[in-house]
């Protein structure tokens, strides 16, 4: 299996359960690992034959930027659903990092892996 990855994608959004979190945008960081067969793209050297990670970044930037979820768990599931459905991926690993969410911890978040049945 080949993996195309997009790490450290920073997006501002409203996320959180506390009242103050519902009033401000916070930065979340996405790390995405996406299963893709890159052999055709390697042979043709054409972007049309591979996963366009710029398109992924744009789509998720729009979606996440306009979202208002309470939980990072929900955000991770929705991101995985978009990747699997719209980009026709067989498998994804999504890491959502909400830096500074817990005092004393550098990183807090979830990692999920999802695939088509």
TrEMBL record:
Q: What is this protein called?
A: 7,8-dihydroneopterin aldolase
Q: Which GO terms describe its biological process?
A: folic acid biosynthetic process; tetrahydrofolate biosynthetic process
Q: Which GO terms describe its molecular function?
A: dihydroneopterin aldolase activity; isomerase activity
A single GO CC term for this protein reads: cytoplasm
Q: Which reaction does it catalyse?
A: 7,8-dihydroneopterin = 6-hydroxymethyl-7,8-dihydropterin + glycolaldehyde; 7,8-dihydroneopterin = 7,8-dihydromonapterin
Give the originating organism: Sulfuricaulis limicola
Q: Which UniProt keywords apply?
A: Folate biosynthesis, Isomerase, Lyase
Q: Where is the Dihydroneopterin aldolase/epimerase domain?
A: 4-114
Which enzyme type, at the first EC level?
lyase
Q: Which Pfam families match?
A: FolB
Q: Report the transmembrane regions from the record.
A: none
Annotated metabolic or biological route of this protein: Cofactor biosynthesis; tetrahydrofolate biosynthesis; 2-amino-4-hydroxy-6-hydroxymethyl-7,8-dihydropteridine diphosphate from 7,8-dihydroneopterin triphosphate: step 3/4
Q: Which NCBIfam families match?
A: folB, folB_dom
